[in-house]
Amino acid sequence: MRYHTPQTFEDAARIAAAAQGVTRFLAGGTDVLVQMRAGMVQPDDLIDLKHIPGTQDIARTEDGGWRIGIAVPGIALGGHEALCADWPGVVEGMELVGSTQIQGRATLAGNLCNGSPAADSVPGLITAGAVVEITGPAGTRTLPVEDVPQGPGRTALKPGELVSAIILPPRGDYGGDCYLRFIPRTEMDIAVVGCAVNLRLKGGVIAEARVALGAVAPTVMLVPEAAAAIVGTALDAAAEEALAQAATAAAKPISDKRGTAEFRREVAGVLAKRAARIAFARAKGDTA
Amino acid sequence: MAKDEYREFRLVGTRPDRPDGLDKVTGRARYGADMTAPGMLWGAVVRSPHAHARIVKIDTSKAEALEGVKAVVTRADLPTGLTGEDWDLQENTLAGERALYDGHAVAAVAATSALIAQEAARLVEVDYEVLPHVTDVDAAMAPDAPVIREGAADPTVPEGMHPNVVKYFAFDHGDVEAGFAQADLVMERTYKTEATHQGYIEPHACLGQLGSDGKGEMWVCTQGQWFIRRMCAAVVGIEAAQLRVTPSEIGGGFGGKTTIFMEPLSLALSRKAGGRPVKIVMSRSEVLRATGPTASASMDVKIGMKKDGTITAGKATFRMQGGAFPGAPVDMALYCAFAPYKMPAVECEGFDVLANRPKCAAYRAPGSPMGAFAVESLLDEMCRKLGIDPMDMRMKNAVREGDRAAYGPKFGSIGLVEVLEATRAHPNLSIPLGLNQGRGIASGYWFNHGGETSVSMAISEDGTAQVSVGTPDIGGSRASIALMTAETLGIPYEDVRVNVVETGALGVNEPTHGSRATFASGKAAVEAAQHAIKEMCRRAAAEWGIEPEAVEWVDGAAQPAGPNAGKFPPMTIAEIAGKMGSTGGPISGHHESVPGGVGESFGCHVVDVEVDPETGGVKILRYLVVQDAGRAIHPSYVEGQYQGGAAQGIGWALNEGYIYGEDGRLQNPVFLDYRVPVASDLPMIDTVIVEVPNPGHPYGVRGVGETGITPPLPAIANAIQAATGARLTELPMNPPRVLAAIKAAKAG
Amino acid sequence: MVAVHLWSSLTRFTDGKRVVEVPGVTAGELLSGLKAAYPGLGPVLDGGVSVVIDDAIAPSLHTPVPDGAEVYLMQRLKGG
Amino acid sequence: MSKIHVTTKVNGDPVEFLADPRETLLDCLRDRLGLTGSKEGCGTGDCGACSVILDGRLVCSCLVLGVEAQGKAVETIEGMAQGEDLHPLQRKFIEHAALQCGFCTPGILVAAKALLETNPDPTETEVRYWLAGNLCRCTGYDKIIRAVMDAAAELRGEAA
């Protein structure tokens, strides 16, 4: 295995494009090293991106959003007060990935590019309207996060392409988001169901909303019907119930070692309701 | 040094620092994988990806051709002609004609680095003819189930039973039907428990060396170095005494490190590699796939009870699979299931069944948790139906000294009633519960075990003492044995060093299992100390010119036994030891026996849970363990056993379990999905040490290690019913099952 | 003669007898007596059993059996 | 496969080793540098027995490549005591009997030290969640949590 430490994304893309065998990018490494250890993947070329300047940075964009480096570990997101104030749902999704130790390494970009339908940070990114900047042999392009996953372990990245930044839009006023997941234990599990809700209030009523579900389909999915169920409401009981039903109806889960399809459908509704309540409270400015 | 309230003893019952504490908090303690040797090679094991397959051909040529590879072994490199348990061990070490479970070893390689060894293992080509498989115990007894091994049944199995039944066992007493007829309520239910793994954090590791002269050495993490010696010697075909086995520090065992897995492979590889030492360290997935989990169980229980809570009769049929080899602890499960109760009539029947899973090993009170899950769950449900307080029912039916155990003989001194009284008196029982919260109670039992024991001790020139024991220290037994030795010799705790020694240093010892280390090695250490005391009294007597019988040992010194014996100042152990070279030579003591007088231990647990009615998630709010320790030598480590046992039982109850796919492959061979409790899953675990001294031990010790894993399974099921009205009869009680049960209960 | 209580599935080898009277003053002699009286028991007993004399498991085949003792056979006990 | 020369600092000491790029930092600590205090319990980041502090951040050394340690600073259990003086956490673990087999202990001590450096006054819940990535199979965590809380109190200068 060849180990590369490029200094620019362009170099990284060039190395990847030229590589003949199995190629993997290394940011936090919390998925790649596990796969190598299990013998699932034996890369011929491993490209460590952490030597590229800026990959460890969290920066405000000109329009008031955020540009997050691809090697920023979860613990750094959680330690960034302004980012947490803007996008608590995004940060809490990332902070749910693994243990404190994993948080010292795991990254948003890695969690996204691993392509797991259960990735905890992805629903929050999707509902936030985040986009990724992609660098490849043909230059850079951007893509909404919801368009990145294409199936379990598969992404829309082409050979030689890699995510070079994650960009969050400006939060704006009266917005709130939240991510909740269900796991059997209190920590250390992969989500059995995950749900993120992002919404904006206008005069106490939900003016816009996005709802995303994880672990109930081959990819994390945006559920417009669920969002529609609460837009125009003040999240009263009926709206919550409609939201839960829409989420349950949209879920297309499988039964596996982590949960049954029936359970996942039901809990998708429960989490949607609970996440919406928190997002709503956050949008109102409650310190939930 | 904190000293607990009572105490007729100077040291027993205090809480000094453990002797190996410093090594273990600084990273210096050496565990199985921490040893290296000059010229060392690394081993790796080739494992079957199939649950059941004929091994058509193994081609090792590519692996052998890889640079750095020094040896490859297959079953052809092991001796033939083994029978019984030895054959089972050999077959489990390396598959012969067929791979019997996912993860079954089929070949092994040794190379100059771990990476080369892993590469070589991938280059071993095995042709398999996949065969039908079965992993569920009930399915394995179905008429059309694939037969795992023809003729594997032992003589206990009557003709006509399913060929996968390899052992059959039944016991009874009294008239069960008459008992049911007298009952006001008779209930019957079927329960299932899934296989769990001991989950010790240290994967198996060994460093083995074997020369062409048949002499070998091994460094290995094990609960019992003599077991390793005997089993390895049989499997690779050498003489037991020619193999010297040194136990490393051990990173947990819980029964799972009482037998062999890859250890003989290190020897076989070493022999083939010209005697170079070979280190093999299992990965976590190897541990979960191919070491010894528990059996899984399917159990029918029927109980009769009068309106006042009196149990009139019980009937149990247990079926257990312990993998592709005999050994599921169905007998122990049945013995323990009704043990806490006076049973006028019982009828118990058990089947040990083969399936395509790894060979089960012991796990903390083997069998008892399953049996308790069935019986304690049903009793709780019956109390609920009859409106009886479950503590009252337990007290009313509790066995006492002289009562006949459900399994036949009469109990000697036992402490169940004292345990139940202490439980009832505990403040946790009067804490009010809120919405969706429930309280569950259950009892548990384990026999404990004496076993072959050999201990030697020697007095040093300065009057301090060294004790050599053969039971590896998993949870503080060096401390408890040092306390008892120091108490007996009348010297400070710090003056005793307890060493866990290699097989060459003592006679045969059984492992640290059966809750026996503090009981058996402790009892033998006390005997050995008495032996040395006798000699020291004799030396003092000779010095004083009086009869040895006229000398007694008090507070670490010889003194005349009374005014008639003469008037001499006490002669301390240091004085006697200081001149032992000129008074007859070294002073030592030793003791070899299978100690009798084993003390059984009963426990009772109380758990409060809160259940999320929308997700089925179960949160443990508080947990209480009450158990009879006989006498707690080092109370902190007794509490530790109670807490650790409870935590493992909680894991078994809620989220742990082997998950096999349709293809017969283990789907959760990593800690990510084999879900042992993490710190945030648990509350503090309250403990009450009840002390009803065991008359069979000089300090009253009962083994305390095992009972604690038993009650959590039913206690949590009982608490979930109290919280939700839903009764779960299948483990693990994970959220999907709990939610489904809540919905079913609501539906009526 | 000592009355030895067997577990019920052993009665297959003892013509249905639950309690078998055999001569002997030690645990081992009782086991030998049982095998002599009912050879079918041999393989099962050789597979490992515990002899319980009154309230205690006999640690040795040489453990004496006192007059009037109650004797039960149990499966060999093990532990984790 | 050619090996890479790595220069790094372990417990304050400059060290060098040759690493196959596939080897983890844990492999390198244990097999190249003889620092076997860090343990491998899973190799997948699920048990925490290999916990070390890498440039001030708590990580599983099984999820870091040895070559990634180039130019960084690594703290392991072997560097926790200052000469003969144990860290208060180490003393409290012995005092509270917070270990049975001791295999998870180095990782838990390193993780707990990282906790107390960022949060000197954690609640029981905070300690439990911080240590959720450190599996202990022997103790049921009770005495571990007590030892960490007690060490924290001592470090804050409160009477234990």
Automatic annotation (TrEMBL), chain A:
Molecular function terms in GO for this entry? FAD binding; oxidoreductase activity
The FAD-binding PCMH-type domain extends over 1-173
Q: Which domain of life is it from?
A: Bacteria
Instruction: Supply the alphabetized keyword list.
Output: FAD, Flavoprotein
What is the protein's given name?
A: Xanthine dehydrogenase family protein subunit M
Origin organism is: Thetidibacter halocola
From TrEMBL, chain B:
Q: Which SUPFAM superfamilies match?
A: CO dehydrogenase molybdoprotein N-domain-like, Molybdenum cofactor-binding domain
Per the database record, which ranges form the Aldehyde oxidase/xanthine dehydrogenase a/b hammerhead domain?
A: 26-132
Among Pfam families, the record links this protein to: Ald_Xan_dh_C (PF01315), MoCoBD_1 (PF02738), MoCoBD_2 (PF20256)
Q: What name does UniProt use for this protein?
A: Xanthine dehydrogenase family protein molybdopterin-binding subunit
Origin: domain of life = Bacteria
Which Gene3D superfamilies did the record assign? Answer: Aldehyde oxidase/xanthine dehydrogenase, a/b hammerhead, Aldehyde oxidase/xanthine dehydrogenase, molybdopterin binding domain
Annotated GO MF terms: iron ion binding; oxidoreductase activity
Species in which this protein is naturally found? Thetidibacter halocola
TrEMBL record, chain C:
Q: What's this protein's name?
A: MoaD/ThiS family protein
Read off the Gene3D superfamilies from this record: 3.10.20.30
- Residues crossing the lipid bilayer are none
Automatic annotation (TrEMBL), chain D:
GO molecular function terms noted in the UniProt entry: 2 iron, 2 sulfur cluster binding; metal ion binding; oxidoreductase activity
Q: Which UniProt keywords apply?
A: 2Fe-2S, Iron, Iron-sulfur, Metal-binding, Oxidoreductase
> Phosphoprotein: is it a keyword of this entry?
no
Would I find Iron-sulfur among this entry's keywords? yes
Residues of the 2Fe-2S ferredoxin-type domain: 4-80
This chain belongs to the protein called (2Fe-2S)-binding protein
Q: Which organism is it from?
A: Thetidibacter halocola
